[in-house]
Amino acid sequence: MAASLPLVAGTRLAAAQSSTSNPLLTKSNQLGWLDTAEPRARCGYTWGQPWPQGSLKSTELLHLVDQAGKHQPLQTWVMATWPDGSVKWTGHATAAGQALGQTFHVEKSEQKGRAPKAKHSVTIAESGKKLLIDTGVIRCVVNTQGEVIIDEITRAKKTLLQNARFIGQRQNQAEADGEQPLQVEHFSTQIQQADIEQRGPLRAVVKLSGMHRTANGREWLPFSLRLYFHAGGDAVRISHSFIFDGDEQQDFIRALGLRFDVPQRDETYNRHVRFVGEGSGLWAESPQGITGLRRDPGKVVREAQINGIATPALDTWDKRVSERLQFIPVWNDYSLSQLNANGFSIKKRTKAGHAWIDVDQGKRASGVAYVGGASGGVLFGMRDFWQLHPTQIDIRNAGTPIAQATMWIWSPDAPPMDLRFYHDGMGMDTYAKQIEGLEITYEDYEPGFGSPQGIARSTDFTIYALDATPSREQCIDLADSIRTPAQIIAAPQTYLDAGVFGGLWSLPDRSSPIKKILEDRLDWSINFYQQQIDQRHWYGFWNYGDVMHTYDSDRHVWRYDVGGFAWDNSELSPDLWLWYSFLRSGDARAFRIAEAMTRHNRDVDIYHLGRFAGLGTRHNVQHWGCSAKQLRISTAAYRRFHYFLTGDERTGDVLWEVAEADKQLVNLLPTRKVNPEAAADKNTHIGIGTDWGSAAANWLTAWERTGDARYKTWLENAMRTIGGNDLGFFAKGYHFDINSKAMTVIPPDPLESGRPKRVSHLNAVFGLIEICAELNQLIDVPEFKAAWLRYGRFYSAPAAQQAAEFGVSLTGNNLTNAHSRLTAYVAQQTGDTALAKRAWDEFFREANHVPEVKRVEGPLVLNPVDEAAWVSTNDSAQWGLAAIQNLALIGGSLAGSALKK
């Protein structure tokens, strides 16, 4: 209630973790580091930067200026444009090794001529079916066809890596059942297409696409992967995505990973294996250890091996050791497996056919390893290793001339991947029974709709080709670049001044007691979800990045096993809340949660091929389980932030996939279970909020990325249709032509005359508010803006005002707190101070619980947890968006008298 928020929230929030924003980014046009400090491993970086409309032409040159005021090499490309053709977003890349400082900036060039050149350039040469990529430090041979992705990586003419390829195993059943034999077959990548997306000079990107092929010739699991190179760099980053297109009843992925060979030149005692554990933890040994022996080879010899450098000449050792080397075991094989989020183990053996020896255990491995010798080798790793469990790293034959390394996306030590639907239908074989099921578990069930066919997952790998075994400190620095990649960001003021994403936010402001309470509550919410992700173990290959929907206070758990109350799948826009939270604050916590959510939802919650391609899945126990397949989940409204802020090409791919996802409306009506009238409509039906708002976001994103007037025409025509309809946004929906995108008005039902008009409370809470703000900013359609302002003025208006406007009052118009930002928008646009006061009254009317958390311990729960039973992700997201936007739109109307309520 209104009184509960101010009275005690301040004391409850005292324990919340403070924002982790970069304190140095205080001025517009400043750039800096998401995690505040410049990384030690300068491996080359990519980011997106916004520009105010009209401020930058595509023909103008840009320079990067470091903290010392020195111009630095910069690669630039246009990511999006404004309606006038000026640049809206630029993408940028730096070379490896560039030191930029804590803050830096990009500016238009004042001088003619070329920007400063980097010491090295990255180049691509094509030779037959191969691409030769040279960063100036390493040379990589990439295949454009066949099984092997990378033929070799050389440094100073020394081959450090060979034969990189993806490999896997599938089996025909989840486990042996005694009736059918368990059959396991191997598969590997088959490259079918290669595209050079960037050629340098500072960054090159190669995209490979194809299928995985089994031993008997079956092609399945379509994949795409990108290889990234930076000038002067000794690393190759690989981003791999695959789509599951098998039969979940008989195609169980047993293992999937990236494998490559590492030539070994050094003596076995001068070779080294490293595994990075948690934080700065490091396990480091040689395949042939010379410490701890009964006889001592000498202190200098021992220290050299421990430090990973070449030992002194053998004839300088104590002969009691040097003459007995053949009796010291050579440990050829190593394995680190992370089968859950809280435990990994390392083991080793001398060779196949002999027992594994337990080495050690830990909690969360970084997924980074090294194999090689004093004269060079390969450090490699997987991003989000423990978060995406079950994972594994294998090193084989380290004591032979050719060692082999495998980074397993899905560990062969884990049970096979099981994507079958989690229940048998429970007798819901009729429409009526399915509606009854929806009533009790909130799950939309329909046979065959809970299919995983078409979902995807992406994994990022990094391979460093090194000319020596890295020091222990260097191992940790390189591991940091893999497990938590550094990200360049702009100062919050820069995003705000550019006017991107509708400008529906302001910078954090604690200048009054009530504003401080709201800001602290916003900060508390980010901290709470960060905490819940870890305490509730929201990790795993298919799960990491998502959060749960609703809490069960009786069991003290989130409702992970109850129908539509489990995984959230972007329900009511948590993505938007998190991204706007980052934009206004630069908070690294908000960014990391939002990025993980985008990387998950863009892959797992969206269908990328097949019957439901382009649609997303409503919230469920399994991410793909609910039978409601909808545009409101796959919409670009949630993913465009990540693309423009980071330049991530995989996210860009998915934005293209959904550009015309509205065509699916002719095949599958998203509200068929709850809107039988629309289901019976012979014309294709498009809902005004969750459908059209999602499609509009897709078209808008495609338009700004391409400048193609076709997308603008679709938007403008739709805006005129909505604005020209007496009901406007209060209409239940429109007829829709999937090809022309033409929308036509559905005549009102005479039987509804005189009855209270029902509206959907969900129309505006899946990005429609934010997208309409941008459309009104970009396209001048007065009748559309008028219809939007009318919707905002009357959605939550008193019944008498609604009746005066429509002849009847409205029903179904709940989520008042969330919709208060609609009222606030109208107040700000019209200067209506009375309406601004009403917006704040609406905001404080509901969902303003005291941010109180209690500790729950055993035997009530398995693990100690912090519980806020009143929290739901729906409310958290919508409360957060309302608070952020109301503060921006009508913050000046938030009088101190609100504290006295």
TrEMBL record:
Pfam families: PcRGLX_1st, PcRGLX_2nd, PcRGLX_3rd. InterPro entries: PcRGLX/YetA-like, PcRGLX/YetA_2nd, PcRGLX/YetA_3rd, PcRGLX_1st. Residues 122-479 form the PcRGLX/YetA-like central beta-sandwich domain. Residues 28-108 form the PcRGLX/YetA-like N-terminal RIFT barrel domain. Residues 485-893 form the PcRGLX/YetA-like C-terminal alpha/alpha toroid domain. This is Tat pathway signal sequence domain protein.
